[in-house]
Each structure stands twice: as C-alpha cells, then as structure tokens.
Design brief:
single chain, about 300 residues, mainly alpha, 2 domains, about 70% helix, elongated
C-alpha cells in the first residue's frame, strides 16, 4: 500500500493538515532511504497539490477583510501588512483603490504610534537625566528641560502661567531667548500682570539687559491696548493697579526704559515702536458712540475687554 502524507493528518483542520503534511513530505525526503521513481513522483504531486490548495484558499476579499478587521481594531501595523499584500498581489482588483487608501492611513497611524512610543521613551530618559543634572549643578538651561519634564512640551508658556513668576532672572532670560513664552500681543493684559508681578519679586536681582527686554515686552502689550480703544477704556481700573494708566504715558515710560537698558536688538525695536507711537500720538480721538462702527458693534453685542484691534 502506497504511503500518503495526508493520512498522517486525518482529523485535523484543513490548514493545519496541509502544513503538517508538507513538513512530513520534506522530512521524509531528507531521509537517506531509497525512493522509487513512482514514489518520488507521488511525493511531488502531493506537495504541489498542497501548495496549490494553500494558494487557492486565499482570496482577495479575505485578505481585504483581514486588513479591514485589523484596521477597525486599531492594529495599524497588521492592517498595513494585509493591505500591502493585497495591493501587490491584486493590483487591478476593484477594491484596489480602497485598499491603497486603507494601507496609506494605516501606515500614517502606525507611524504616529511609533512616534508616540519613541516620544514617551525620550521623555522618560530626559526625566532621568534631569533628576541627575539638577543635583550636580544649577544652569539656566535646566528651566527649558524642566518645562518639558512637567508636560509643557506645548510651550511657549501662556502669559497667565503661574510658573513664570517663579523663574529667577537667568532662567527667565533663557526662556525668552528660546521663544518659550508667548509674545505680548497674544494676551496683553496677562503679559502686563506677569511682568509687574515678576519685577516686584526679582527686580533687585534683574540685570539691565533683561530689564530692558521686559520693558520692551511691556511696551508691546501697552501698544496693543492703546490701539484698541474699547479694551483700553474698560480695563482702566485694572491698568491703574499695575502702573499702566494712562496708557499713552505708561507706554512712553516703558519705551524709554527699554531703549536705555536694553541690548542693541532691544534698542532697535524700541526705536521702531517709538516712531509709531509718535506718529499716532497727536491724532488719537475718543470713541464716538454714534459712529457707524460703534452702531454696528453695539447691534451685534460687544464685550469691550475682548474687542482687540485686529493684527
């Protein structure tokens, strides 16, 4: 009776049977026993039949659905592999465009997952380094690292961030150099508040160049307020508490301080802003409640403290 490898896998599932039968064939062919020509042909026919059956069992629709299932489960890498197989094996299939789209999306999303994992690993490494470094020495650059460790990688810091009031002069200067604090035009009033509070705390230790830079930032915030008559009017009481009223005089004082104390870059910006202030100083008029502009704004409803001049 001729031997058939399929008899060795009766009772198992079809795929497992075929895989096992192929292994049996290969193993038996390795044995140094005499195989007749007829037997050898039988082995080869069985092997080819199994291989052909395996290929025939995989359809484009099955591969696509496997990819779709992995995609819906958020298994992006697995989905990408299925759709990539589909697109290479059946490039002209009607599902081809959809498979190409799904492969691309899965590729993008798997990349994001890898990037997030890598970012988490980097953050953990930075945290470990920061703990070591802060014990070894004190440096302004540590303030930048501290922001990242504290989960503030979405810096620059908002002007309303309470952390700004705690940075000593050298660290604050580093943050300003690196652009890690939002500029005055983003939130003029909060900028004035944090600079006022910080200078009350650190002004005696503040070097002249940093004092000049902060005066320039204060000037830019006051300029935004001065260009916006409705917030300027409604914020008068708050501005008085932080030496910002009258706005025009406070602006001129800050500009002079910035020009006198700042480095060459600060002096240049102060001079340019000073020219703009002088150009508009003689033509500023109070708000006319009967003007077309105010009539329209009042009809729409206007919150004066948020009615900033468009940038």
């Amino acid at each position: 009776m001729n031997y058939s490898p399929l008899r060795e896998v009766q009772g198992s599932d079809p795929w497992a049977g075929k895989e096992f039968a192929v292994k049996v064939i290969v193993n038996r062919m390795r044995k140094p026993e005499r195989v007749s020509c007829t037997g050898f042909i039988a082995w080869m026919v069985a092997l080819l039949a199994l291989a052909g059956g395996a290929v025939q069992a995989i359809t484009p629709e099955e591969v696509f659905q496997d990819g779709r299932r992995a995609f819906d489960l958020g298994h992006w890498q697995e989905a990408r592999e299925h759709f990539s197989h589909f697109n290479h094996a059946w490039p002209t299939h009607t599902l081809g465009p959809r498979a190409l789209l799904m492969e691309t999306l899965a590729d993008i999303r798997s990349g994001k997952n890898l990037a997030e994992k890598a970012e988490a690993e980097r953050l953990a490494e930075w945290s470990a380094r920061y703990r070591v470094l802060r014990e070894k020495f004190d440096a302004p650059e540590l303030s930048e690292l501290a922001l990242v460790i504290q989960g503030r990688e979405d810096a620059p810091l908002a002007a309303s961030a309470s952390a700004l009031l705690d940075f000593p002069p050298d660290r604050l200067a580093h943050l300003l150099d690196r652009g890690l604090v939002k500029p005055p035009a983003v939130d003029p009033m909060e900028t004035l508040r944090w600079i006022h509070g910080w200078r009350q705390k650190f002004d005696r230790r503040c070097p002249a160049e940093l004092r000049g830079r902060l005066a320039l930032w204060r000037s830019k915030a006051l300029w935004e307020i001065w260009l916006s008559p409705l917030p300027s009017r409604s914020l008068a009481a708050q501005l008085q508490k932080i030496a910002g009223w009258p706005v025009e005089k406070a602006l001129q004082r800050s500009l002079r301080e910035a020009f006198q104390e700042g480095d060459p870059a600060v002096k240049r910006e102060s001079a340019l802003l000073g020219l703009s202030v002088e150009a508009f100083a003689g033509v500023r008029l109070p708000v006319d409640p009967s003007s077309d502009w105010m009539t329209y704004l009042n009809s729409r409803g206007i919150h004066e403290q948020e009615a900033w001049c468009p940038r």
